[in-house]
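>> received
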Amino acid sequence: MEDLATIQVEKETRKRLKELRITKRETYDEILNRLVKNVTNLKNKD
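>> returned
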């Protein structure tokens, strides 16, 4: 298992992350990694 870190996010940010879930079991880490991957892909298209 990888090292885990605690990050602070506002309640509104947490709510928005929950809304981005593809499945109910998707973790915040999975959501964040998917978002980072999408942004990276967009940047590399330029």
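>> Helices lie at 11-19, 28-45.
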